[in-house]
């Protein structure tokens, strides 16, 4: 009987010990599936780089940059813009795709700003009068030419069918300009993007480029920049124009040339930002006085000549040719190849041959 009770006691003891062990095992943490896998061999999800397809976009005829394909069909406008100290800052000028600067009388220059995407501009100008040679430069880009009056030598061509234009001084064109009374006349005439568009419709001008229109310039792409490897270093470009004394300084960070004049940065009054462009073309032209009494210049836009192409901190000599008033200007390198611009804005400087040597291109 005693042996039987001893055996029962042993069995009970074993059962209690067994239960305790199972309880401790059940409390032990379960290792995770990656606990013993080295961190550097753990799989990570691959995230591919986003690919820009430029869906709905095309290359601009005027800058070579991507833009909305619908806006790329818009016909541009060319606006005559004053460039004297009393008019600073000009407005909307930073949105221009192309800027022409030409000498006029008295040592001053005047600008022609060419816009394709202009509809949203709130203030453009100030707007001043036409000079004959500007008409032919505007014609090169299929632009509608906006001006406020003109020299007498431009009247015949403006009144012909040669170029679509809107005069802010005479006729119905005045309705599309306004005076800013915070400045004195005649330096206070402005327009807007909305007015530019309305004027084109009112005059019945085509608002779209011809279906067969091709780009005025040839462009590279952002991935294949024209580095002008054989060119001279051009970190600063100073121009001879005696009133504004303008110059450009190259910024290696963004690859743009920043514009200065009258001893300071040239600013767009609409944005407060300094003007900057990717390309500069110096186009040397024959010049003479059409009117010695008033000092009215005549610039030969047709006979061809020399110049410089400047981009990416370098400059190379070029030549230029234009077959007729209805044709465009073509620019060539010394080996006879047409120049290829880098995508971005372009500033064309019309230079009198007799003064070209006074322009300075420097490495500092």
TrEMBL record:
InterPro entries reported for this sequence: DUF3048_C, DUF3048_N, YerB-like_sf
Region span, Disordered: 23-54
SUPFAM superfamilies, alphabetized: YerB-like
Gene3D superfamilies (alphabetical): YerB-like
Ranges for domain DUF3048: 63-205, 240-348
Pfam families: DUF3048, DUF3048_C
Stated name of the protein: Lipoprotein yerB
Species of the source: Roseburia faecis
């Amino acid at each position: 009987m005693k042996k039987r009770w001893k055996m029962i006691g042993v069995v009970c003891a074993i059962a209690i010990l067994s239960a305790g062990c199972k309880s401790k095992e059940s409390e032990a943490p379960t290792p995770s599936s990656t606990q013993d896998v080295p961190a550097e061999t753990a799989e990570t999800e691959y995230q591919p780089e986003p690919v820009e397809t430029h869906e709905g976009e095309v290359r601009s005829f005027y800058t070579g940059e991507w833009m909305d394909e619908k806006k790329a069909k818009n016909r541009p406008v060319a606006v005559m813009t004053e460039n004297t100290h009393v008019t600073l800052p000009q407005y909307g000028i930073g949105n221009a795709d192309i800027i022409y600067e030409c000498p006029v009388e008295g040592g001053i220059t005047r600008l022609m700003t060419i816009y394709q995407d202009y509809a949203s501009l709130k203030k453009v100008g100030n707007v001043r009068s036409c000079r004959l040679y500007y008409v032919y430069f505007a014609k090169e880009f299929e632009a509608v030419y906006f001006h406020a009056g003109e020299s007498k030598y431009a009247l015949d061509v403006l009144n012909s069918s040669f170029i679509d234009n809107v005069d802010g001084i005479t006729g119905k064109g005045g309705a599309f300009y306004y005076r800013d009374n915070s400045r004195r006349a005649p330096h206070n005439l402005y327009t807007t993007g909305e007015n530019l568009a309305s004027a084109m419709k009112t005059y019945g001008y085509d608002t779209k480029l011809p279906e067969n229109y091709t780009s005025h310039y040839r462009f590279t792409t952002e991935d294949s920049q024209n580095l002008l490897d054989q060119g001279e270093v051009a970190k600063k470009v100073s121009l001879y124009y005696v009133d504004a004394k303008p110059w450009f300084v190259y910024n290696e960070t963004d690859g743009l040339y920043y514009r200065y004049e009258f001893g300071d940065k040239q600013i767009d009054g609409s944005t407060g930002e300094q003007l900057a462009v990717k390309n500069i073309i110096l186009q040397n032209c024959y010049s003479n006085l059409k009117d010695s009494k008033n000092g009215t210049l005549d610039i030969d836009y047709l006979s061809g000549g020399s110049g410089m192409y400047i981009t990416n901190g370098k400059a190379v000599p070029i030549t230029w040719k234009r077959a007729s008033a209805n044709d465009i200007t073509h620019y060539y390198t010394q080996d006879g190849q047409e120049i290829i611009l880098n995508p971005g804005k372009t500033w064309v400087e019309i230079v009198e041959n007799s003064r070209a040597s006074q322009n300075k291109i420097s490495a500092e």
